[in-house]
Here is the input.
Amino acid sequence: MSRVEVEKKVLNENQILAQQLRERYREQRVLCVNLVSSPGSGKTLLLEKTLERMDKSARVAVLTGDLQTENDAKRLAKFGFPVKQIVTGGTCHLDAKMVERHLVDWKLEDLDLLVVENVGNLVCPSSYDLGEDAKIVLLSTTEGEDKPLKYPSIFFKSELMVLTKIDLLPYVPFSAELAKENAHRVHPGMEILELSSTTGEGLDAWMKWLKRRQQQKAETVLTELGG
Amino acid sequence: MACLNLALGFMHELGIATSILECVQAEANRRPGARITKVGVKIGELAGVDVDSLQFGFEAIIKDTGLEGLVLAVESIPRVQRCPKCQHEFRMTDYDPQCPHCGEFATQCISGEELDIAYMEVDE
Here is the structure.
Protein backbone atom coordinates (compact mmCIF):
# COMPACT_ATOMS: atom_id res chain seq x y z
CA MET A 1 0.00 0.00 0.00
CA SER A 2 1.34 3.42 -0.84
CA ARG A 3 0.15 6.88 -0.02
CA VAL A 4 -0.09 9.51 -2.73
CA GLU A 5 -0.15 13.14 -1.66
CA VAL A 6 -2.64 15.05 -3.78
CA GLU A 7 -3.20 18.51 -2.26
CA LYS A 8 -5.87 19.55 -4.69
CA LYS A 9 -9.03 21.58 -4.26
CA VAL A 10 -12.12 19.37 -4.31
CA LEU A 11 -13.78 21.85 -6.65
CA ASN A 12 -10.65 22.18 -8.74
CA GLU A 13 -12.45 22.11 -12.12
CA ASN A 14 -14.80 24.88 -11.03
CA GLN A 15 -11.88 26.81 -9.61
CA ILE A 16 -9.95 26.66 -12.89
CA LEU A 17 -12.95 27.87 -14.89
CA ALA A 18 -13.68 30.60 -12.34
CA GLN A 19 -10.10 31.79 -12.61
CA GLN A 20 -10.44 31.98 -16.41
CA LEU A 21 -13.61 34.05 -16.03
CA ARG A 22 -11.88 36.30 -13.51
CA GLU A 23 -9.07 36.85 -15.99
CA ARG A 24 -11.53 37.73 -18.77
CA TYR A 25 -13.33 40.21 -16.50
CA ARG A 26 -10.00 41.76 -15.63
CA GLU A 27 -8.92 42.10 -19.26
CA GLN A 28 -12.20 43.77 -20.19
CA ARG A 29 -12.40 45.76 -16.95
CA VAL A 30 -15.78 44.34 -16.06
CA LEU A 31 -16.83 44.33 -12.43
CA CYS A 32 -18.68 41.10 -11.63
CA VAL A 33 -20.75 40.84 -8.46
CA ASN A 34 -22.44 37.69 -7.23
CA LEU A 35 -25.66 38.28 -5.25
CA VAL A 36 -26.47 35.58 -2.72
CA SER A 37 -29.30 35.26 -0.20
CA SER A 38 -32.08 33.01 1.07
CA PRO A 39 -35.10 32.74 -1.24
CA GLY A 40 -37.30 35.80 -0.78
CA SER A 41 -34.74 38.21 0.68
CA GLY A 42 -35.26 40.63 -2.18
CA LYS A 43 -32.46 40.01 -4.70
CA THR A 44 -34.64 40.42 -7.76
CA LEU A 45 -36.51 43.47 -6.46
CA LEU A 46 -33.23 45.14 -5.55
CA LEU A 47 -31.97 44.41 -9.07
CA GLU A 48 -35.16 45.86 -10.60
CA LYS A 49 -34.64 49.06 -8.61
CA THR A 50 -30.95 49.08 -9.50
CA LEU A 51 -31.59 48.78 -13.24
CA GLU A 52 -34.38 51.35 -13.01
CA ARG A 53 -31.92 53.86 -11.52
CA MET A 54 -29.13 53.12 -13.98
CA ASP A 55 -28.36 55.60 -16.67
CA LYS A 56 -29.78 54.35 -19.97
CA SER A 57 -26.25 54.35 -21.37
CA ALA A 58 -24.91 52.20 -18.51
CA ARG A 59 -23.06 49.12 -19.70
CA VAL A 60 -24.61 46.58 -17.38
CA ALA A 61 -25.89 43.03 -17.84
CA VAL A 62 -27.56 40.52 -15.54
CA LEU A 63 -27.45 36.74 -15.28
CA THR A 64 -30.16 35.45 -13.00
CA GLY A 65 -30.24 31.91 -11.66
CA ASP A 66 -33.23 29.87 -10.55
CA LEU A 67 -34.13 26.21 -10.23
CA GLN A 68 -37.07 26.70 -12.56
CA THR A 69 -38.93 29.38 -14.58
CA GLU A 70 -37.83 32.39 -16.61
CA ASN A 71 -39.83 34.72 -14.33
CA ASP A 72 -36.90 36.73 -12.98
CA ALA A 73 -35.40 37.37 -16.41
CA LYS A 74 -38.81 38.64 -17.56
CA ARG A 75 -39.04 40.97 -14.55
CA LEU A 76 -35.55 42.32 -15.23
CA ALA A 77 -35.71 42.54 -19.03
CA LYS A 78 -38.11 45.48 -19.08
CA PHE A 79 -35.35 47.96 -18.27
CA GLY A 80 -33.67 47.47 -21.63
CA PHE A 81 -30.38 45.98 -20.43
CA PRO A 82 -29.17 42.52 -21.48
CA VAL A 83 -30.60 39.90 -19.13
CA LYS A 84 -30.36 36.14 -19.29
CA GLN A 85 -31.95 33.47 -17.16
CA ILE A 86 -29.93 30.48 -16.01
CA VAL A 87 -32.34 27.65 -15.21
CA THR A 88 -30.36 25.14 -13.17
CA GLY A 89 -33.06 22.47 -13.35
CA GLY A 90 -32.59 21.40 -9.75
CA THR A 91 -29.04 22.35 -8.90
CA CYS A 92 -29.04 24.54 -5.82
CA HIS A 93 -26.29 26.96 -6.90
CA LEU A 94 -24.66 28.44 -9.98
CA ASP A 95 -21.23 27.20 -10.98
CA ALA A 96 -18.58 28.74 -13.20
CA LYS A 97 -19.49 26.53 -16.14
CA MET A 98 -23.10 27.72 -16.16
CA VAL A 99 -21.94 31.33 -16.09
CA GLU A 100 -19.43 30.77 -18.88
CA ARG A 101 -22.03 29.04 -21.05
CA HIS A 102 -24.47 31.91 -20.67
CA LEU A 103 -21.87 34.54 -21.50
CA VAL A 104 -21.07 33.12 -24.93
CA ASP A 105 -23.09 35.55 -27.04
CA TRP A 106 -22.36 38.64 -24.95
CA LYS A 107 -19.32 40.77 -25.61
CA LEU A 108 -17.59 41.48 -22.31
CA GLU A 109 -15.87 44.50 -23.83
CA ASP A 110 -19.31 46.12 -24.09
CA LEU A 111 -19.86 45.81 -20.35
CA ASP A 112 -18.70 47.62 -17.21
CA LEU A 113 -20.82 45.69 -14.74
CA LEU A 114 -22.04 42.11 -14.72
CA VAL A 115 -24.45 41.18 -11.97
CA VAL A 116 -25.00 37.50 -11.26
CA GLU A 117 -28.07 36.74 -9.18
CA ASN A 118 -27.43 33.36 -7.61
CA VAL A 119 -30.05 30.74 -6.76
CA GLY A 120 -31.78 31.61 -3.47
CA ASN A 121 -29.71 29.56 -1.01
CA LEU A 122 -27.18 30.48 1.67
CA VAL A 123 -25.29 27.18 1.67
CA CYS A 124 -24.17 25.92 -1.73
CA PRO A 125 -23.37 29.22 -3.50
CA SER A 126 -20.71 29.87 -0.88
CA SER A 127 -18.59 26.95 -2.18
CA TYR A 128 -18.67 27.83 -5.87
CA ASP A 129 -16.41 30.57 -7.13
CA LEU A 130 -17.92 32.23 -10.22
CA GLY A 131 -14.89 34.39 -10.91
CA GLU A 132 -16.69 37.35 -9.35
CA ASP A 133 -14.89 40.35 -7.85
CA ALA A 134 -17.24 40.38 -4.89
CA LYS A 135 -19.90 38.24 -3.33
CA ILE A 136 -22.73 40.30 -1.85
CA VAL A 137 -24.98 38.66 0.70
CA LEU A 138 -28.50 39.94 1.35
CA LEU A 139 -30.29 39.50 4.66
CA SER A 140 -33.85 40.72 5.09
CA THR A 141 -35.55 41.97 8.22
CA THR A 142 -38.13 39.17 8.00
CA GLU A 143 -35.44 36.57 8.66
CA GLY A 144 -33.60 35.80 11.90
CA GLU A 145 -30.79 38.04 13.14
CA ASP A 146 -28.72 34.90 13.68
CA LYS A 147 -28.52 33.96 9.98
CA PRO A 148 -24.84 35.02 9.86
CA LEU A 149 -24.11 32.60 12.72
CA LYS A 150 -26.11 29.78 11.14
CA TYR A 151 -24.55 30.21 7.70
CA PRO A 152 -21.11 31.65 8.50
CA SER A 153 -19.47 30.53 5.27
CA ILE A 154 -21.32 32.89 2.94
CA PHE A 155 -21.13 35.82 5.36
CA PHE A 156 -17.41 35.25 5.77
CA LYS A 157 -16.81 35.19 2.03
CA SER A 158 -18.96 38.21 1.16
CA GLU A 159 -17.43 41.64 0.79
CA LEU A 160 -20.71 43.40 1.50
CA MET A 161 -23.87 42.56 3.41
CA VAL A 162 -27.06 44.31 2.36
CA LEU A 163 -29.79 44.41 4.97
CA THR A 164 -33.03 44.59 2.97
CA LYS A 165 -36.69 45.42 3.77
CA ILE A 166 -35.78 47.99 6.44
CA ASP A 167 -39.20 49.63 5.85
CA LEU A 168 -40.61 46.66 7.78
CA LEU A 169 -38.49 47.25 10.89
CA PRO A 170 -41.34 48.88 12.88
CA TYR A 171 -43.53 45.81 12.31
CA VAL A 172 -41.16 42.89 12.83
CA PRO A 173 -39.24 41.71 15.90
CA PHE A 174 -35.89 42.17 14.19
CA SER A 175 -32.93 43.99 15.64
CA ALA A 176 -30.78 45.46 12.90
CA GLU A 177 -28.05 46.10 15.46
CA LEU A 178 -27.95 42.46 16.53
CA ALA A 179 -27.91 41.27 12.91
CA LYS A 180 -24.99 43.57 12.12
CA GLU A 181 -23.18 42.51 15.27
CA ASN A 182 -23.59 38.84 14.31
CA ALA A 183 -22.36 39.54 10.78
CA HIS A 184 -19.27 41.24 12.17
CA ARG A 185 -18.61 38.36 14.57
CA VAL A 186 -18.34 36.05 11.57
CA HIS A 187 -16.64 38.58 9.32
CA PRO A 188 -15.00 41.44 11.20
CA GLY A 189 -14.91 44.63 9.16
CA MET A 190 -17.41 43.51 6.48
CA GLU A 191 -19.16 46.45 4.85
CA ILE A 192 -22.89 46.67 5.56
CA LEU A 193 -25.60 48.68 3.81
CA GLU A 194 -29.23 48.99 4.89
CA LEU A 195 -31.99 49.66 2.40
CA SER A 196 -35.58 49.23 1.35
CA SER A 197 -36.20 48.52 -2.32
CA THR A 198 -39.88 49.33 -1.73
CA THR A 199 -39.48 52.84 -0.29
CA GLY A 200 -36.13 53.58 -1.94
CA GLU A 201 -34.42 54.36 1.37
CA GLY A 202 -30.74 53.50 1.18
CA LEU A 203 -30.73 52.89 -2.57
CA ASP A 204 -28.50 55.91 -3.25
CA ALA A 205 -25.81 54.46 -1.02
CA TRP A 206 -26.13 51.10 -2.79
CA MET A 207 -25.77 52.70 -6.23
CA LYS A 208 -22.75 54.62 -4.95
CA TRP A 209 -21.21 51.41 -3.62
CA LEU A 210 -21.52 49.78 -7.04
CA LYS A 211 -20.05 52.85 -8.72
CA ARG A 212 -17.16 53.06 -6.27
CA ARG A 213 -16.42 49.35 -6.63
CA GLN A 214 -16.37 49.71 -10.44
CA GLN A 215 -13.92 52.60 -10.20
CA GLN A 216 -11.80 50.67 -7.74
CA LYS A 217 -11.64 47.73 -10.16
CA ALA A 218 -10.74 49.92 -13.11
CA GLU A 219 -7.97 51.57 -11.09
CA THR A 220 -6.60 48.23 -9.87
CA VAL A 221 -6.45 46.91 -13.44
CA LEU A 222 -4.72 50.09 -14.62
CA THR A 223 -2.14 49.85 -11.82
CA GLU A 224 -1.48 46.22 -12.68
CA LEU A 225 -1.03 47.08 -16.35
CA GLY A 226 1.26 49.96 -15.43
CA GLY A 227 3.28 47.75 -13.09
CA MET B 1 -26.97 9.68 -11.30
CA ALA B 2 -30.20 11.43 -12.26
CA CYS B 3 -32.14 9.03 -10.04
CA LEU B 4 -29.76 9.65 -7.19
CA ASN B 5 -30.14 13.36 -7.59
CA LEU B 6 -33.86 12.96 -7.29
CA ALA B 7 -33.58 10.57 -4.37
CA LEU B 8 -31.20 12.79 -2.45
CA GLY B 9 -32.93 16.01 -3.34
CA PHE B 10 -30.66 18.98 -3.97
CA MET B 11 -28.16 17.92 -1.39
CA HIS B 12 -25.20 20.21 -1.62
CA GLU B 13 -22.78 17.56 -0.40
CA LEU B 14 -23.67 15.27 -3.31
CA GLY B 15 -21.99 17.67 -5.72
CA ILE B 16 -18.93 17.77 -3.48
CA ALA B 17 -18.92 13.95 -3.23
CA THR B 18 -19.14 13.71 -7.03
CA SER B 19 -16.15 16.04 -7.43
CA ILE B 20 -14.12 13.90 -4.99
CA LEU B 21 -15.10 10.73 -6.85
CA GLU B 22 -14.09 12.25 -10.20
CA CYS B 23 -10.70 13.07 -8.75
CA VAL B 24 -10.28 9.48 -7.49
CA GLN B 25 -11.33 8.07 -10.86
CA ALA B 26 -8.81 10.29 -12.64
CA GLU B 27 -6.09 9.00 -10.31
CA ALA B 28 -7.26 5.40 -10.83
CA ASN B 29 -7.07 5.86 -14.61
CA ARG B 30 -3.46 6.98 -14.25
CA ARG B 31 -2.64 3.74 -12.36
CA PRO B 32 -4.00 0.77 -14.29
CA GLY B 33 -4.17 -2.35 -12.12
CA ALA B 34 -3.89 -0.44 -8.86
CA ARG B 35 -6.75 -0.17 -6.38
CA ILE B 36 -7.44 3.03 -4.49
CA THR B 37 -8.60 2.14 -0.99
CA LYS B 38 -8.84 5.48 0.73
CA VAL B 39 -9.18 9.15 -0.14
CA GLY B 40 -8.36 11.73 2.49
CA VAL B 41 -10.02 15.14 2.41
CA LYS B 42 -9.64 18.24 4.54
CA ILE B 43 -12.79 20.19 5.28
CA GLY B 44 -12.64 23.50 7.08
CA GLU B 45 -15.44 24.55 9.37
CA LEU B 46 -16.09 27.54 7.10
CA ALA B 47 -16.45 25.35 4.00
CA GLY B 48 -20.16 24.88 4.60
CA VAL B 49 -20.03 21.10 4.20
CA ASP B 50 -21.84 18.70 6.49
CA VAL B 51 -19.54 15.71 6.97
CA ASP B 52 -22.31 13.15 7.65
CA SER B 53 -24.17 14.20 4.50
CA LEU B 54 -20.93 14.03 2.54
CA GLN B 55 -20.24 10.47 3.77
CA PHE B 56 -23.81 9.47 2.97
CA GLY B 57 -23.66 10.92 -0.54
CA PHE B 58 -20.23 9.44 -1.17
CA GLU B 59 -21.31 5.92 -0.19
CA ALA B 60 -24.32 6.25 -2.46
CA ILE B 61 -22.42 7.33 -5.55
CA ILE B 62 -19.52 4.85 -5.38
CA LYS B 63 -21.91 1.93 -5.92
CA ASP B 64 -21.39 0.28 -9.32
CA THR B 65 -18.27 2.34 -10.03
CA GLY B 66 -15.78 -0.46 -9.33
CA LEU B 67 -14.56 1.58 -6.35
CA GLU B 68 -16.71 -0.16 -3.73
CA GLY B 69 -14.99 -0.25 -0.37
CA LEU B 70 -13.25 3.04 -1.03
CA VAL B 71 -13.02 4.87 2.29
CA LEU B 72 -13.56 8.59 2.55
CA ALA B 73 -11.45 9.88 5.43
CA VAL B 74 -12.43 13.38 6.51
CA GLU B 75 -10.17 15.62 8.54
CA SER B 76 -12.10 18.56 9.95
CA ILE B 77 -10.06 21.74 10.09
CA PRO B 78 -10.98 24.29 12.75
CA ARG B 79 -11.06 28.01 12.15
CA VAL B 80 -7.82 29.58 13.29
CA GLN B 81 -7.23 33.32 13.51
CA ARG B 82 -3.96 35.24 13.61
CA CYS B 83 -3.56 38.54 15.37
CA PRO B 84 -1.83 41.15 13.17
CA LYS B 85 -0.56 43.02 16.25
CA CYS B 86 1.00 40.29 18.42
CA GLN B 87 1.06 37.40 15.87
CA HIS B 88 -0.77 35.18 18.37
CA GLU B 89 -2.69 32.33 16.67
CA PHE B 90 -5.83 30.98 18.27
CA ARG B 91 -8.71 28.61 17.63
CA MET B 92 -11.82 30.72 17.07
CA THR B 93 -14.83 29.67 19.10
CA ASP B 94 -18.30 31.21 19.24
CA TYR B 95 -17.36 33.56 16.40
CA ASP B 96 -15.37 35.66 18.77
CA PRO B 97 -12.54 37.18 16.71
CA GLN B 98 -10.91 39.00 19.61
CA CYS B 99 -7.29 38.10 20.25
CA PRO B 100 -7.17 36.43 23.70
CA HIS B 101 -3.58 37.60 24.09
CA CYS B 102 -3.70 41.34 23.39
CA GLY B 103 -7.39 42.13 22.86
CA GLU B 104 -7.18 43.14 19.17
CA PHE B 105 -10.49 42.66 17.30
CA ALA B 106 -9.36 42.77 13.66
CA THR B 107 -7.76 39.32 13.58
CA GLN B 108 -7.39 37.41 10.33
CA CYS B 109 -8.61 33.96 9.38
CA ILE B 110 -5.66 31.72 8.46
CA SER B 111 -7.40 28.35 8.26
CA GLY B 112 -10.87 26.89 8.23
CA GLU B 113 -11.85 27.45 4.59
CA GLU B 114 -10.30 24.19 3.30
CA LEU B 115 -12.14 21.95 0.86
CA ASP B 116 -9.15 19.94 -0.32
CA ILE B 117 -8.24 16.42 -1.35
CA ALA B 118 -5.11 15.70 0.68
CA TYR B 119 -4.04 12.15 -0.22
CA MET B 120 -5.05 8.75 -1.56
CA GLU B 121 -3.98 5.31 -0.42
CA VAL B 122 -3.23 2.93 -3.26
CA ASP B 123 -2.73 -0.86 -3.40
CA GLU B 124 -0.34 -1.29 -6.32
